[in-house]
Amino acid sequence: MRGQAAYEDRVLYQGDPWVRLDTLPRLLAEGWRRTLSAGGVVSVVRTPFQWSMSSPVIEIETGGYLGDVGLYVPEVQLPEALTLLGLDEDPANEA
């Protein structure tokens, strides 16, 4: 069984509250980040080693850290992020 990295649900990042959407493999998180970015939602990935505001493609291609990461968005953009990723639980949004 693969161990999962532990990341806080809420953090202060650059002075603002951010919330963790999920903990998931790096490649999946980077795909979610592209979806969020296309919808205007800022996101950041937290690895066990650092925070990353941009997708370091060279790091991924050269075999950088691909394990579990925490995917965070600013708390004020959480509703938008959940909607973009289809994770909102509001029955009114289901058609």
Q: What can you tell me about this protein's structure?
A:
It is a single chain. The chain has 95 residues and is α+β, with helices and mostly antiparallel strands. The chain has a single domain (10-87), classed as 2-Layer Sandwich (Histidine-containing Protein, Chain: A). Helix content is 26%, strand content 27%. Strands 1-2-5-3-4 form a five-stranded antiparallel β-sheet. The radius of gyration is 14 Å and the shape is globular.
Shape: globular
The tally of strands reads 5
Can you tell me the CATH architecture?
2-Layer Sandwich
SSE ordering: EEHEEHEH
Helix content: 25-40%
Poorly predicted ranges: none
Per the CATH scheme, the topology name is: Histidine-containing Protein, Chain: A
Give me the secondary-structure category.
alpha+beta
Nearest-integer average pLDDT: 84
Give the termini separation: 37 Å
What strand line-up does the widest sheet have? 1-2-5-3-4
As a percent range, the share of strand residues is: 25-35%
Tally of helical segments: 3
